Amino acid sequence: MEYFVNCNTSTLAPYTTPLDKLRAAHLYRRLGFSASVQTIDQAVGQNPATLIDNLVNEALAMAPTPEPTWADWNNSNYPADDDAARALRRAQAEEWRITYTNALLNNNLRDRLSFFWSNHFVTELDVYDCTSYLYYYTNCLQRNAIGNFKTFVSEIGLTNAMLYYLDGAYNNGNNPNENYARELYELFTLGEGNGYDEDDIIETAKALTGYVNRGEIGCEPIQFDVTRFDAGPKTILGQTGNWNYDDVHDILFNQRANEIAEFVCRKLYEFFVHPDSLDATGNAQAIINGLASTFVSSNFEIAPVLSQLFKSQHFFDENAIGVIIKSPFDLYLNFIKETGFAYNDNTVLNVVDTTAMLSQEVFDPFDVAGWQRDRTWINTNFIIGRWLTSEVFIEGFYQSNAEQFRTFAMDAVGPADSNTSNPETVVRAIVDKLTPKGLLTPQEFQNAVDVFKIEDVPENYYGPDYIPGGLGLWMLAVSPEVPLQVFLLLMYLSRQPEFQLK
Questions:
Q1: pLDDT over threshold 50, residue 120
Q2: Which end of the chain is more exposed for a tag (fewer CB within 10 A), N or C?
Q3: Which residue has the higher pLDDT, 134 or 4?
Q4: Is 114 exposed, middle or buried (0-12, 13-18, 19+ CB in 10 A)?
Q5: Among candidates 357, 348, 365, 349, which has minimal Cα distance to 328?
Q6: Taken in order 63, 67, 72, 75, is the CA torsion positive or negative?
Q7: Distances from the Cα of 76 to the Cα of 8, 79, 373, angstroms
Q8: How far is 500 from 70, CA to CA, in rounded Å?
Q9: Which of 465, 325, 337, 459 has the alpha carbon at shortest distance from 397?
Q10: What pLDDT score does 471 carry?
Q11: What are phi and psi of 282, to 5 degrees?
């Protein structure tokens, strides 16, 4: 795998050129989990600012996923038998993972962001083990994904999932627990050692005390107990007073606005534009500074920052395209969206299970720092796993309905060439659809053509020089061998380095 240096020197000035197919595909790969041939074709020629406004407004207006029947269950709702209760919890968690992944497949910015924030405000279901907590944690992610970041930070800290995961539920006034206070600064708002010290953590932990009434049944909502709150004076970021939970956030965002903005905008930049924001030869820092300024001036609203970024020349620059390694979720969800192959809940469950095997288990990152992304997705074991599992998915789609492979090819080449007798036209269209910038060299493309042109065919099958209407027998729309040819091409492409990029 070639590593990319961030050489993007474009600015935040608006990108005003009507979208071509390359940049339309880039937009949907970054703002969602890619898109169908038809969606990309509809985006071609559109004004980028208008399209991005529509996508952002759609995300802002989107309601959270409806609550499941077990959203407010506590332990009294489960069987008395421990094994039966565990089995039911596992079934509910599986149901919600499928529901949530289906939301990701709906290809919207809101859930691309909710997925991003789940790896920022990390919790682990294995730790708190209450599916009702999981639902309300997810609900918080969705409601705030493109809302106000200060509100988001405040609300996520009081979700039951977070209170249990980072020990806020055990943060008593007479025995403060510093776990959440530390991560509030280090991982959620400022970055490690950036504008706070150990005393700030200790004092902040005292101000966050009192959310410890855990009930007696289990999996009940945690309540505030005023008798467990530290009512003494605390000094936080240079401010002294009898501070409480809300005061902490007011002080933090008032005293460290610029630091928060720079930290969060850097994470957004690395997720949506390029993983290298520090070691760069371009002007990534200038872009982050500009976004941070917008973040502060908009009172920490997320939408203006993203709108500015997505509409920029920097986002659409050639050096921003195809430079991020797909996560496991990107790998499979992008393929499903791009091919338009039929899927169901079993397919989605296979995605959930396979991504977990490749170290991206939704709702269960391996630690509080979350998945580290990009190059960490590629090592000797993971790349082989990505190859083999991609082939399993492709084989499954082929076994269930081979003809959809022909349909995908015809959609990719478009109506003008849907009856083409030139295999290279078909291969080019499919390669361009499934890779951000095509294959790296002419020889790699020729290898793909050779795979597509299966050998066990009649003489003159392709015709002299692939002349449409010539002597060739092969025709994309009718030849029975076409689904197999497309299948073999997809199997080949799934192992190419370019297929791993977005």
A1: yes
A2: N
A3: 134
A4: buried
A5: 357
A6: negative
A7: 56, 8, 39
A8: 38
A9: 337
A10: 47
A11: -90, -140
